[in-house]
């Protein structure tokens, strides 16, 4: 019988702990496919964040490091400066990358570290049970914005790709989504390119992936994908924000 | 014999670290330790090493965490307020069992405090500088020569016991110059990661993946890692305590002091001996592990102890614990960047002799 | 013999450097020594001093409570340290910058118009080296000829062009002591 579909080689056999309908699984797969296609698993070192993907170190077959909350880009910098010929990536959520770790994110991008960052933006803190994230939308109800996010008291959501695009050093910044098949296909291209840039020594790449959190959004997986389409993409437009590659 | 050179304590640390195979330094400017960063920024590019001025102390210690994960000899340095920021990283380094060198050239606190010498981070460093149950190795040099020698020792002990190691000195030690014989360049930096099979250097598709991690969601597993770690600490306490004894043979008063105050105390002890006072000193060199045994032994014959410290009485408590409060433990201290003069220490010794 | 030298004045007068040249000279002579700077938030102006101990025996504390050699290049420093000098000690005063006299009678005072002398050789910043020359000649804490070697080995690449002027300044200090019979 012909095998028509299988797990990427650079994912381990560990069973993912993510909630049903969560798109972390898709993005893990896209990262693993990129690693497989570039044949770099043996020299890749990943850095996991604090957040829902904290246990990503169990899922990727390459060497993995678990970082403190928000510090993954600094940890990745330390790794990359020690082993410049290796491929180093971080996988971070919105609280990790855009709130507690924003300083590390901006500074690492500003230095143009030759690393790849996969940034999962699902507009909420998932692991701690659905609190407001720096990327939560105006009016979005969360555990810590029970009346909906109010710009006057809680500020406006942060657009990371746009923010980083003002810097000179980053090579490649793209925002993608994984809520539909065409979007997943585009996301795959972007993730692959972000790794390829690093392999070719081009510099800092960050892919922002609009992702879902059906559990904490209180939506079915299907409705969650619609939420991305109807609410998130209008505020977080998809596309390339910088491409010097 | 190798040549003596004149160097600041801070510079001696930096050069010694390089000679011990450290090729990755990450730091952030803060007085009075900035000479270390300045020295590294000059030297590292010339030897293919990394000097990186990080965006913060927090980022610097996490860069160290990354470089240490790959098995490299790596270090950062700071002074007291910066060490507060590094506490998170120290906890993660300890939790992931990563060796690394952290230098703390102390200044007065709390808060922004001052920039003059202090020993007020003693509790913070020796009790476990961060959240969770852990220790780091803490070494207290009192000469520029020891600044260099202990840099090597810190790397070696850290690697042997798989834990972060700290040089804890006061601002005076960092700023002063003395003749120093630097360690020989005997370590090939490239050879070090191979001695660490746990390092995340890439699987090369030849082994299962390595994971550097401090997260254990199952309580029984986390308990096990804590207990195992403390077994290592017990071994460390048993085998690696270091101290210096000075004129202790017939001493009736035992001064206990480290760093600059140990040197001031030495002058005072010489003066007191001229007056016929039988006084000596035990100078702890490892602050964690604390040399309890020699103090307990001294307690069997001396009348009293006198700690000389640049804080409100921190090591004083460790001495009391070490001797089980069996003798009086007095204190001569100055804080805020002030240093007791040898006359002040002499006066305190005279008081003990009465 | 132990020489406990404090060099004090304003930041920017090169006091830390003259201290370093003295310390390095002691190193060349194989003596025991320490060099300790004061350090403050300001880079220029403000008070500044360094303590240099040169001894035949191992140095205990690098902090000097009672200097037997004091070099002062501003009045606040003379005010601050005059009382600390040990009896029989020597104070070297830059008399171009300090108008008052040393009040104590149990210590010797050497008045050198060092800043004026330095100005005359078009190198006002070398007053410190003139006084250093005077100190080594007067006290013998290190051999004057070793200071030259120390200077050559201590001067930064950035200031290497000023080596000859520095050497000349030290020489002027030595000569000042010779000519003034002290």
Helix count of chain B equals: 12
Show unreliable segments of chain B: none
Shape of chain B: globular
Helix and strand sequence of chain A: HEHEHEHHEEEHHEHEHHE
**Total beta strand runs of chain A:** 9
Overall pLDDT metric of chain A: 97
CATH topology name of the largest domain in chain B? Rossmann fold
Roughly what percent helix of chain A? 25-40%
**Topology, number of strands of chain B:** 15
**Oligomeric state:** heterotrimer
Number of domain units of chain A: 1
Strand residues, percent of chain A: 15-25%
Distance linking N and C termini of chain A: 42 Å
Task: Enter the CATH topology name of chain A.
Answer: Rossmann fold
Low-confidence stretches of chain A: none
Largest sheet of chain B: 7 strands, mixed
The CATH class designation of chain A is Alpha Beta
Task: Describe the 3D structure.
The complex is a heterotrimer of chains A (245), B (354) and C (182). Chain A contains 10 helices and 9 strands. By secondary structure, chain A is of the alpha/beta class. The longest helix of chain B is centred in the middle third of the chain and has 21 residues, at 219-239. Chain B has helices at residues 9-19, 34-43, 57-69, 80-95, 122-126, 144-161, 171-175, 219-239, 259-274, 292-299, 315-322, 342-353; strands at residues 4-8, 24-27, 50-53, 74-78, 100-106, 137-139, 164-170, 177-181, 211-212, 243-246, 253-257, 279-284, 286-288, 304-309, 328-333. Chain B has a 7-stranded mixed sheet with strand order 3-2-4-5-7-6-13, with helices on both faces. Chain B is 40% helix and 20% strand. Chain C has a 6-stranded mixed sheet, sandwiched between helices. Chain C is globular and about 40 Å long. The model of chain C has no long low-confidence stretch (mean pLDDT 94). The interface between B and C is medium-sized, with 23 and 19 residues.
């Amino acid at each position: 019988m012909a095998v028509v579909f299988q797990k990427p080689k650079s994912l381990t056999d560990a069973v993912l702990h993510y909630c049903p309908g969560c798109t972390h699984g898709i993005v893990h797969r896209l990262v693993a496919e990129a690693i497989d296609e570039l044949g770099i698993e043996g020299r890749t070192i990943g850095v996991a964040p604090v957040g829902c993907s904290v246990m990503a170190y169990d899922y990727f077959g390459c060497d993995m490091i678990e970082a403190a909350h928000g510090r993954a880009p600094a940890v990745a910098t330390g790794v990359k400066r020690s082993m410049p010929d290796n491929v180093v990536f971080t996988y971070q959520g919105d609280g990790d990358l855009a709130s507690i770790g924003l300083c590390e994110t901006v500074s690492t991008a500003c230095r143009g570290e030759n690393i790849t960052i996969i940034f999962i933006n699902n507009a909420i803190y998932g692991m701690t049970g659905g609190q407001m994230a720096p990327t939560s939308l105006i009016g979005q109800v969360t555990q810590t914005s029970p009346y909906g996010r109010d710009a006057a008291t809680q500020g406006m959501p942060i657009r990371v790709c746009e923010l980083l695009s003002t810097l000179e050093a980053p090579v490649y910044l793209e925002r993608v989504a994984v809520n539909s098949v065409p979007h997943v296909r585009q996301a795959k291209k972007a993730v692959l390119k972000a790794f390829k840039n690093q392999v070719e020594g081009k510099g800092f790449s960050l892919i922002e992936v609009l992702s879902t959190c059906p559990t904490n959004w209180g939506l079915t997986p299907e409705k969650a994908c619609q939420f991305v389409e109807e609410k998130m993409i209008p505020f977080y437009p998809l596309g390339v924000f910088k491409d010097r590659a | 014999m190798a040549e003596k050179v004149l160097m600041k304590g801070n510079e001696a640390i930096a050069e010694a670290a390089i000679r011990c195979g450290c090729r990755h330094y990450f730091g952030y400017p803060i007085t009075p330790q900035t000479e270390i960063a300045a020295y590294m920024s000059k030297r590292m590019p010339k030897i293919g090493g990394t000097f990186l001025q990080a965006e913060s102390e927090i980022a610097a210690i996490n860069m160290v965490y990354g470089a240490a994960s790959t098995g490299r000899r790596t270090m950062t340095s700071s002074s007291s307020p910066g060490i507060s920021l590094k506490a998170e990283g120290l906890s993660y380094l300890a939790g992931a069992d990563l060796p690394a060198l952290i230098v703390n050239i102390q200044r007065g606190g709390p808060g922004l405090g001052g920039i003059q010498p202090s020993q007020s981070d003693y509790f913070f460093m020796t009790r476990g500088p961060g959240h969770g149950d852990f220790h780091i190795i803490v070494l207290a040099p009192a000469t520029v020569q020891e600044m260099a020698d202990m840099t090597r020792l810190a790397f070696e002990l850290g690697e042997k016991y798989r834990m972060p190691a700290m040089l804890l000195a006061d601002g005076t030690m960092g700023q002063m110059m003395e003749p120093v014989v630097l360690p020989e360049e005997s370590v090939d930096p490239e050879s070090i990661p191979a001695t660490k099979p746990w390092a995340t250097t890439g699987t090369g598709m030849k082994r299962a993946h390595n994971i550097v991690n401090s997260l254990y969601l199952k309580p029984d597993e986390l308990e096990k890692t804590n207990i195992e770690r403390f077994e290592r600490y017990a071994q460390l306490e048993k085998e690696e305590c270091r101290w210096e004894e000075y004129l202790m043979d017939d001493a009736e008063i035992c001064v206990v002091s480290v760093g600059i105050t140990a040197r001031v105390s030495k002058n005072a002890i010489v003066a007191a001996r001229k007056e016929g006072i039988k006084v000596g000193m035990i100078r702890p060199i490892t602050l964690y592990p604390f040399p309890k045994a020699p103090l307990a032994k001294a307690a069997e014959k001396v009348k009293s102890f006198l700690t000389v410290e640049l804080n409100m009485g921190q090591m004083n408590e460790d001495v009391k614990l070490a001797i089980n409060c069996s003798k009086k433990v007095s204190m001569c201290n100055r804080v805020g960047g002030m240093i007791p003069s040898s006359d002040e220490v002499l006066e305190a010794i005279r008081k003990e002799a009465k | 013999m132990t020489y406990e030298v404090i060099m004090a004045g304003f930041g920017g007068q090169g006091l830390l450097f003259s201290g370093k040249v003295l310390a390095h000279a002691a190193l060349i002579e194989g003596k025991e020594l320490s060099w300790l700077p004061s350090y403050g938030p300001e880079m220029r102006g403000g008070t500044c001093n360094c303590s240099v101990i040169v001894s035949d025996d191992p140095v205990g504390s690098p902090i000097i409570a009672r200097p037997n050699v004091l070099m002062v290049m501003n009045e606040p420093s003379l005010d601050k340290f005059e009382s600390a000098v040990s009896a029989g000690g020597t104070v070297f005063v830059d008399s171009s910058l300090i108008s008052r006299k040393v009040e104590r009678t149990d210590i010797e005072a050497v008045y050198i118009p060092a800043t004026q002398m330095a100005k005359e050789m078009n190198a006002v910043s070398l007053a410190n080296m003139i006084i250093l020359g005077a100190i080594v000649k007067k006290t013998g804490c290190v051999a004057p000829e070793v200071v030259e070697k120390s200077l050559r080995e201590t001067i930064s690449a950035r200031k290497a062009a000023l080596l000859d002027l520095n050497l000349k300044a030290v020489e002027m200090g030595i000569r000042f002591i010779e000519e003034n019979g002290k």
